[in-house]
Amino acid sequence: MSSDLVRLHLKISINFAILPDVEPDENAIKIKDVRSYVIKSEENEKLQGSSAYYHKQVEGHWIDGTDQWPIANPMSLYQKYKSRRNSWGIGALGSVIVEIELTNGINGVGISIGGQPACYLIEYHFRRFLIGEDPLNIEYIWDMMWRSSINYGRKGLTIQAISAIDLALWDCAGKLRNEPVYKLLGGKTKNSLPCYATCYNPLAAKNLGFKGAKFPLPYGPADGDHGLIKNIQRIKDIRFSVGNDFPLMIDCYMSLTVPYTLKLLELIQPYNIKWLEEALPPDQYNGYSQIKKENRTTCLLTCGEHEYTRWGFKLLLDNYCVDILQPDVTWAGGLTECRRIVALASAYDIPIVPHGSSIYSYHLQYAFPNLPMSEFLLLSPNGDSISPIFGQLFHDEPLPINGWITLDTYKSGFGVTLNKTNLFRPYFNQNRTK
C-alpha cells in the first residue's frame, strides 16, 4: 500500500483492528427462547384490555370518543370516521407481548403495540439476534436489531417490536440481579411519582387525588368556527368544574394546523391551561417550531408520543419545537433508547413526561431527575375510576394512591407477573431465523 493510501486510511477510520464477535462469558446464563403473543380474541381484548388505548374497547368507551364529545384526530377530516376513533382502526393492531426465557428459568416480559405483524418480525427476524446470547448484553442486541432493520424500519411498527424485546431484556436483567430495573439505571432520584390523569372528566381525576388532568380536544379545523367555539366552551366548563388552581392540559392528538393552534392558544389564555399536547402530525417539525416561536402565551407546548428513537427526538430538540418531550417507553425504542433520549433532552434543559406506559416508564422516571411526573390513563369505560393501564395482562400492576405511584423496592425487574390466561402465540417456528 502506498504512503498516500496509508495516510488516507488513517484519516477515515479509528478502528485499528477488526473486533471479534461478541460471545457470552463462560458459564453465562443465556437466552433460551423468545415468544411473542397477542390477546387471544377480540372479546378478551375488549373486556380485559391490553396496552393503553391502542386495542379494541367496549362500545361507548370514552377513549374512542362519544356522542357528546368526539376526540379530534387526523381522521376527523372525513365525516364517516370523525365521531369514533375505533371507526378508522385505532385498535386494529392491538398489543404485542414478548416473553424471553433464560436458561436458568427466569422469564422477562415486554409490551408494545403491533399485534400479529410485530409478532412476525420478532419470531422471524429479530429472534436470530437473541437465542444463545447473554441477556445482559442489551446494548449489543439493540444495535443488531436496529441495524438489521434500517432498510424497512426506523419508526413505527419495527421500533415498537424492538421496544417490546428490549423491555423484556431489562426485565430479565433486573431479575438476574434481583433488583428493580431503576437500580440498574443508577438508582432512584425520587421516592415516588406524582401523577396526572388523562381522562374524560377532569373533576373525577381531581376527586381521585390526581395532581392534574389532561382531556382530549373534541373538534379540529374541519369543524370550522362552530367547532372552535364548542372547544372553548368545553375548556371553559372544565375549568369551572375543577376550580382555578387544578392543573389542566389539552391533548390535540395530531389533529390541528399551525394557524388553528396559534388561534387556540390565544383563546384559551383565560383558562390557565398548563400545556397543549401534540397539536400537529409528528413529522411537521417546521410547523412545531413555528408555533413555539410565535406562541405569546404562558401555555407550554409538548409532543413526542408518536416520535421514535434518539434521531427523531434530536430533530424536535434541534428545531426548538417543544417545551416538554413525551416519548412512550414501549414505542420509542424501549428503555435502552429512552435513556439516550433522556440524556439528550437534559443537554437542552427540556423535561420529559413520558406518554403513559405504566411500569416501563415508572422505572425510567425513578432513575432520572428530568422526568418530574407520570401520566396515568383512566381507562375505565366512563373514565371515572382507576384500573390497570395494561388491563389484566399483569397480576400485580402498581396503581396510584392519592395521585402517587410508589414502586416496591423488593420486587425485581419491572416488578410485575404476566397473566398468560388469554394469550395466543400466532407464529411458532423456531427454525426460521435466516
TrEMBL record:
Residue ranges spanning the membrane: these are none
- Limits of the Enolase C-terminal domain: 209-420
User: Is the keyword Magnesium in the record?
Assistant: yes
The Swiss-Prot or TrEMBL record lists the needed cofactor(s) as: Mg(2+)
Q: Which domain of life is it from?
A: Eukaryota
The keyword Zinc appears for this protein? no
Q: Which UniProt keywords apply?
A: Magnesium, Metal-binding
Which GO terms label this protein's molecular function in UniProt?
Answer: hydro-lyase activity; magnesium ion binding
| Positions of the Mandelate racemase/muconate lactonizing enzyme N-terminal domain | 96-186
Give the GO terms filed under biological process for this record. carbohydrate catabolic process
Question: Which PANTHER family does the annotation name?
Answer: ENOLASE SUPERFAMILY, MANDELATE RACEMASE, MITOCHONDRIAL ENOLASE SUPERFAMILY MEMBER 1
By what name is this protein known?
A: L-rhamnonate dehydratase
Q: Which organism is it from?
A: Rotaria sordida
